[in-house]
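@channel anyone free to eyeball this complex?
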Amino acid sequence: MADIIVTPIPERKRGSGVKLVYDLLRDEILDLTLPPGSPIDEVQLAERFSMSRTPIREALVRLAGEGLIDTLPNRSTMVSNIDFLNLHTFFEAITLMYRMTTRLAAKHHNPGDLPIIRAHQAEFAKAVAAQDALAMIATNRDFHAAIAEAGRNPYFTALFCRLLDEGRRILRMYYQSFDDRLPQRYADEHEEMITAIAARDVDAADRLAKSHADQIVRQIQQLFARDQRQDIAL
Amino acid sequence: MADIIVTPIPERKRGSGVKLVYDLLRDEILDLTLPPGSPIDEVQLAERFSMSRTPIREALVRLAGEGLIDTLPNRSTMVSNIDFLNLHTFFEAITLMYRMTTRLAAKHHNPGDLPIIRAHQAEFAKAVAAQDALAMIATNRDFHAAIAEAGRNPYFTALFCRLLDEGRRILRMYYQSFDDRLPQRYADEHEEMITAIAARDVDAADRLAKSHADQIVRQIQQLFARDQRQDIAL
DNA sequence: CGTTTATTTCTTGTCGACAAATAAAATACA
DNA sequence: TGTATTTTATTTGTCGACAAGAAATAAACG
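replying in thread with the prediction:
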């Protein structure tokens, strides 16, 4: 008599399904695995994760709350678009948050914060050395998020992380189109920022954060300027 | 034969239930009708709105996403507490947002924006004249939200509105404990801000926003200093 | 052949019910 | 009487099913 084959790992803890779906979809959206405009189908996801639509739905509500997906009433829901026309507002906001969080980190960091920040910077340097674009983007985010945490202002940290995540989508396009030697420069700037924070030099931290932000903004703007030229019909 | 009595208004449009519950709970939380720590019971709400637990749940997930309620896994969910120990981070953030949004409004406002802002200011003045504390809080929020809208940076607007809403809870306590003549001063400062915005005077807008914010922060701090004295055991 | 109307299809929104997890109550035990 | 253990109760998390809405398709009509 043949043994009955059971599904390998159908076991899941009670409240874990939502977080699982949320985290995975979030990553896929930010990595552009699910590019803007991708349709999100509830039943399809329910089959994929072999669970009911209810927890899927809860994860989608959360993602919608963060603006990562758009829901048309009674109709489809899809990955939200990047508003290229208003990118300047994004740059404006993220530059300010770079400055504020770095300033506050210089002011309020505790002894335990610096090792964490340095660890993230080491990860970033490793990703740069390996020329791993996806890892660079992720570790860069974590590095700055750690600085924001050390600044001890949850409101700024929340906005900054949101902006960094939205930036992940934009940076993903950036690194998709060309790889140059700038990442090394970013790594060096990170080191300077750490030094300024460790020295509790608020003004230096602010200056470095601003130039770091300007640097990134300029790079992205150049990318889009180039793309726009390509878009012109001949 | 007696007519069968039907429930008066059981009709509700398909996707409207969630928004209904969300808006109402949100208002009750921000007005302190539901003070921090109040238990939120799903079945109770389901009965109150005569609908299933599913839409209630969705509304709660959204509120949790904004940090207005805290959810203990598998156990109760309740209105989130106000973190009085870290109020300074709140003041820091809202002061910066007052400044940024007012600056940006001075820079980017369109002809259509000023009438809207003035309308909200008129509502605020009316509430002040009527000594209606709740209306003052609500119209003050709307006034500053309108300025933020005119600044045309959705990231700042979103954070600012969130801070203003969180502030609604704090201000509610403020006006509960004592009414003085300061609201008139706030109304005057509002007028000055409108003038600066209309004149596109960024520096003046910034200065006024900063002093306005400082004014409010100082008032709240005085309230809490007073409360703290009362809290000391005799 | 083009336009309007009916039908089908597909997705979402809502429901009632059940199972799991935890707290509270009751019981057993020293 | 105090503590540990079992039982009950309450609340949440998940499920499958059904109905409403809107787009896509088919049909009717000029």
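from a first look: Residues 1-9 of chain A have pLDDT under 50 and may be disordered.
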